[in-house]
Amino acid sequence: xxxxxxxxxxxxxxxxxxxxxxxxxxxxxxxxxxxxxxxxxxxxxxxxxxxxxxxxxxxxxxxxxxxxxxxxxxxxxxxxxxxxxxxxxxxxxxxxxxxxxxxxxxxxxxxxxxxxxxxxxxxxxxxxxxxxxxxxxxxxxxxxxxxxxxxxxxxxxxxxxxxxxxxxxxxxxxxxxxxxxxxxxxxxxxxxxxxxxxxxxxxxxxxxxxxxxxxxxxxxxxxxxxxxxxxxxxxxx
Length: 237
Prior knowledge:
Layout: H1 3-54, H2 58-85, H3 89-104, E1 109-116, H4 123-143, E2 153-161, E3 166-173, H5 188-199, E4 203-208, E5 214-221, E6 230-232
Parallel strand pairs: 1-2
Antiparallel strand pairs: 1-6, 2-3, 3-5, 4-5
């Protein structure tokens, strides 16, 4: 190796070391933020539990119990998102599915999850998909089923990866469907989903379901795969 080549190799190694050092610092910073958030949720839940014990009326106890349940739910969702951002979308889905069902149960909504083997997705991709799922499922529960419908609802979630390297996320409901003026797709939540899909080189679109309701489809590059394996997180509807 001549002198010029040696200098180039040393420069490349220096860049690699700096990059790894930057990634290590960033990982430590994120871990510290997560730790502080977890501590904050613990303090908040402990304070609410104390108020619940000291509540003097049934109405106050009922309201505080609801607040405590919401705090614990958000805390669990944050933990799940942390798992997903660490490259574990399959673990995130395994854990969050039951939580989604608990949230949807008071609204008489059933949720099913089907997925391929997602262990090969990048950290950036898994984090974005987890956030998209959380936003989409929340939107379905809150907006797809007006009280006037008075029917049992179903939300189906499917994440598939093709051997050609294309990922596809589909969230469908059988609610009251998209409005004629399509204002649904102009909402802040939908804009967030579009932005998250764009960050991983993907796209998002909303269409009317074959039997009513709305279907969100997100397609994104996932890298080539040798094979896929389907995991059924619940009975299909």
